[in-house]
Design a protein that fits this description.
Elements lengths: L12 E10 L2 E11 L4 E5 L6 H8 L7 E6 L2 E3 L6 H10 E4 L11 H11 L5 H14 L15 H13 L5 E5 L7 H17 L2 E5 L3 H7 L2 E6 L2 E6 L1 H6 L4 H10 L2
Parallel strand pairs: 3-8, 3-9, 6-7, 7-8
Antiparallel strand pairs: 1-2, 1-4, 4-5, 9-10
Length: 255
């Protein structure tokens, strides 16, 4: 993606019968999920329900025990048997983590240029131009030379998003990216996600921000005990949940 260009088509993500266990604990229980190109899906649910594991499996960062995952044309198989496909998947979908995972010894600009230079072989000048354009896009061009320790939590998260975008993904997987932020910084990060939604990226967002899910998601999924217990348009799921498990969870987070 050229700096400033808009994505015209996101990537399709599909999970079929995906199971994941940690010892005797079932984290994902024969889970089925399909995300259309350009769709924004918000995943909500209680702690320990498998939300983060779902994202990590979809990006090939965590192996799974049964089922299959397809991202665009690439298929991930169980038990880590598709290492090559996992590399290709990570070229299509970026991952943004709750704890930023910025390199502390690199500036904001250097954090963003590192992967395009090393993975894509992009010349340094071109990578810097791209990084500056992406920092401008997330409202941080003037912080290009700052170290992570000099940035607020919200600024670090926006740099992390810019870093993911530097690899020209067609989708982003976002894992509770505002949960570690002070309330005043959350809106800046969520505004960046809303702009990316308009650009056409596929977004799969694990979040506790019910307002964001209501406002920006095409679909809300309630995940509990490793299963999707309810899904649908935000207004239906959040205001008129059909299942007792979804009603129970939402009654706790919306009061």
């Amino acid at each position: 993606m050229v700096a400033g260009a808009r994505v015209t088509e996101g990537v399709r993500i599909a999970l079929r019968g995906v199971c994941k266990r940690f010892g005797d604990h079932v984290v994902l229980d024969a889970l089925d999920l399909e995300v259309a190109p350009g769709e924004t899906v918000a995943i909500i649910g209680p702690s320990g329900s498998g939300k983060s594991t779902l994202l990590r499996c979809a990006n090939g960062l965590t192996s799974f025990d049964a089922g299959e995952i397809t991202v665009g044309p690439h298929r991930l198989a169980p038990n880590g048997s598709s290492t090559g496909a996992a590399h290709e998947v990570r070229g299509l979908v970026g991952m943004v983590f709750q704890d930023f995972q910025l390199f502390p010894h690199l500036s904001a600009l250097e954090n963003i240029t590192l992967a395009p230079r090393r993975v894509l072989g992009m010349p340094a000048a071109q990578a810097s131009e791209l990084a500056l354009a992406l920092l401008d896009r997330v409202g941080l061009r003037t912080r290009a030379g700052h170290w992570p320790r000099q940035l607020s939590g919200g600024q670090k998260q926006r740099v992390a998003i810019a870093r993911a975008l530097a690899m020209s993904p067609r989708g982003l997987l976002c894992d509770e990216i505002t949960s570690a932020l002070d309330p005043e910084w959350k809106s800046d990060v969520l505004a960046v996600l809303e702009a990316l939604r308009k650009d056409g990226l596929t977004l799969l967002v694990v979040t506790h921000e019910i307002g964001f899910a209501r406002r920006a998601a095409d679909r809300v999924i309630v995940l509990a005990d490793g299963r999707i217990v309810e899904q649908g348009p935000p207004a239906e799921v959040l205001d008129r949940p059909r299942t007792e498990r979804a009603r129970q969870f939402l009654s706790r987070v919306m009061t």
